[in-house]
Amino acid sequence: MTYQELKADEEQYVMQTYGRFPIALDHGQGAQLWDVEGKRYIDLASGIGVNCLGYNHPALTSAIENQIHKLMHVSNLFTTAPMVQTAKTLVTATGMGKVFFANSGAEANEGAIKLARKYSFDKYGAGRNHIVTLWNSFHGRTVTTLKATGQTRFHDYFFPFTEGFDYAAAGDLDDLKSKITDSTCAVMMELIQGEGGVLPQDPAFVQAVAALCRQKDLLLIIDEVQTGIGRTGSLFCFQQYGITPDIVTMAKGLGGGVPIGAVMAAKSCCDVLTPGTHATTFGGSPTVCAAANAVLSIVNDPDFLAQVCEKGEYLKNKILALGSPAIHGVRGKGLMLGIIVDEGQHSVFAQKLISQGVLVITAGKNAVRLLPPLTITYEELDEALAIMKTVFCN
User: Fold this and answer.
1) What angle do CA 156, 160, 165 make, to 5 degrees?
2) What's the pLDDT tens digit per position in 87-108?
3) What is this structure's pTM?
4) pLDDT attached to residue 303
């Protein structure tokens, strides 16, 4: 089918909840994609950071294919080897305690919220249940994670929201302290606010928040849905901040393209969720965990992670070297970068880049967001940079 034929059927049969770019993608290889009409693109978006190994990666596709011939799904009333192995790899790599598997980042964040509230309930009784998040944060699209999100534009339509959240300014420790009361049980933050505009947190602020949480016995929840699984040049971004979280959430890149999320808890709180207190039908299925194991076998390697850092620096420096007056800076870590342009112009530049064969997305009010596959080659980066030059410098 042509794009126009597909688009007509989409508008008739699919709820129009997305402002989709005017292309229909058909297949991919490595960090390259082709649409239904044969046009080729360099992918600097990777499904919003999901396709960390790119497209048609042999290790990932083989792991999924081999597993579906054995077991695609069984309920969590039974144990499966792929699930256990994924949890073991994550815990061993981080020194954390245990893992709960879900299906998405929003589900993982819901699980973290429940864990934090039950930890406090078990230890202090009812009433200690508020969670402080940061302004400009994004934690998901469920009724609860929308309320946890510190952007007022998401706090509409779906009333009543789950209550129990307060918001502090990122980087302002005094403001965060002012939001902590006797009813607070946790602080939840992204170390780079992705949807908010690719905004890295100041390490001193993050370390001060971690110390404050220890002092007051508040659980520190780090949302690594977008920053985790090698995206910033370490398996998890918190490993670059010199902190030990109580809870870490993840999704996106963990499955390399299949839907999986996870809540990882420290040894001090990993037994809070007991039988009957949290569950999900599809979480930790053999198929998605087989994919996750393939991803981790590649990404959780010091040499691979070093290459992510090197590629990120290369891409950042080359963008800055374009010398375009339209570009006001590049921020982020590893292969999670934002090209900063005038407010409101990020969508204009994104559309131009896509029309010229480079897939990007936007973030916040002024960032063209780059989340390429971690396996992207320098040749593919150079091709994308050449197109960026024509877009940003003309």
Assistant:
1) 85
2) 999 999 999 999 999 999 999 9
3) 0.98
4) 98
Give me the phi and psi of 181, to 5 degrees please.
-130, -175
* Token representation of residue 101: 């598997």
CA dihedral 348, 349, 355, 358 (to 10 degrees): -150
Rounded Cα distance, 30 and 191, in Å: 28
Q: What does the pLDDT look like over 257-273, one tens digit per residue?
A: 999 999 999 999 999 99
**Over the chain, what HEC string results?**
CCHHHHHHHHHHHCCCCCCCCCCCEEEEEECEEEECCCCEEEECCHHHHCCCCCECCHHHHHHHHHHHCCCCCCCCCCCCHHHHHHHHHHHHHHCCCEEEEECCHHHHHHHHHHHHHHHHHHHHCCCCCEEEEEECCCCCCCHHHHHHCECHHHCCCCCCCCCCEEEECCCCHHHHHHHCCCCEEEEEECCEECCCCCEECCHHHHHHHHHHHHHHCCEEEEECCCCCCCCCCCCCHHHHCCCCCCEEEECHHHHECECCEEEEECCCCCCCCCCCCCCCCCCCCHHHHHHHHHHHHHHCCHHHHHHHHHHHHHHHHHHHHCCCCCCCEEEEECCEEEEECCCCCHHHHHHHHHHCCEECEEECCCEEEECCCCCCCHHHHHHHHHHHHHHHCC
Q: Which two tokens stand for residue 363?
A: 């973030």
All residues at 6 or more sequence positions from 377 whose CB lies less than 8 Å from its CB, including other chains: 30, 31
Q: Supply 76's token pair.
A: 């969590």
Residues 6+ apart with CB under 8 A from 249: 105, 108, 109, 111, 112, 221, 222, 223, 224, 225, 261, 262, 263, 264
